Amino acid sequence: MSNPTVELLRARKSVRAYEPGPIPEEDVRQILEAAVQAPSAGNMALWTIIRVTDEEKKRRLAKTCDNQPFIAAAPLVLVFCADYRRWFDAFASLPLSEPLRKPGAGDLMLAAVDATIAAHASVVAADALGYGSCYIGDILENVEEQRAILHLPAYVTPVCMAVYGKPTAQQRERAKPARFAVEELVHENAYRDVGAQGMREMLARRQGLEGEALEDWLLRFCRRKWNGAFSAEMTRSVRKAFEDWEKGI
């Protein structure tokens, strides 16, 4: 039996082109409310959303996030930040008899997961309201510039960005890229290592390719995604974010 929520999740796809005009504020509010209602560790909500409405900041983010102009054109831009600052400040104000532990790598990971859960709640809500959205993983690059643009203090760092808007007709009609099968990604009780050949078989099914065509696709994908300059920058930037977080700067 079909379920509308499950079907919504199955049908959702990234949207990178939007019709002109803003999203009505009542709809923006519903999108934000969905994020606030998302689960979080200990109900701490270890995240903050920065809604970017300043056009110059949107242009700067489009540039720092791998030069993607559609970011600046999106009616709604939300940056989800891991945020332990307000909790740490509250803890630091207590009359503790023991030294107060400073936020560490585990705290950043937990806050990053919380922020991502909230982000996904927001994009599902947007889809339910008739809007499209796209995650921007490149917010993990150029962390120094991102923090400067958003004026982020210690123990606050960007981990996820999403942009939203009414899809154009072309985006609505565009087919969603094929996904891997449940059986390929869900392992029971223990990890099942498929190796390089198993991965090729998974890709052959998903991409509809075989032989030299599949090998050529995998080679080009490796060069573009794995060995690309943006990937090296993302690794440097995330390492820097962890270092700064643990230093409290």
List keywords for this structure.
249 residues; alpha+beta; globular; NADH Oxidase; four-stranded antiparallel sheet; 12 helices; 11% strand
Report on the structure:
Helices cover 53% and strands 11% of the residues. The chain is an alpha+beta fold and 249 residues long. The chain has a domain at 4-177: NADH Oxidase. The chain has a four-stranded antiparallel sheet, sandwiched between helices. 28% of the residues are buried. The model has no long low-confidence stretch (mean pLDDT 97).
Can you identify the CATH superfamily of the domain at 4-177?
NADH Oxidase
Strand content: 5-15%
Mean pLDDT: 97
How many strands appear in the DSSP assignment?
A: 4
CATH architecture of the domain at 4-177: 3-Layer(aba) Sandwich
The major beta sheet can be summarized as: 4 strands, antiparallel
Q: Return residue spans where pLDDT drops below 50 for at least 5 consecutive residues.
A: none
Shape: globular
What is the alpha-carbon Rg in Å? 20 Å
Q: In the CATH scheme, what's the topology name of the domain at 4-177?
A: NADH Oxidase
| Number of helical segments with 4 or more residues | 12
Oligomer: single chain
Helical fraction equals: 40-55%
Main-sheet strand order equals: 1-2-4-3
Class of secondary structure makeup: alpha+beta
What is the N-to-C succession of helices and strands?
HHEHHEHHEHEHHHHH
In whole angstroms, the N-to-C terminal distance is: 52 Å
| CATH class identity of the domain at 4-177 | Alpha Beta
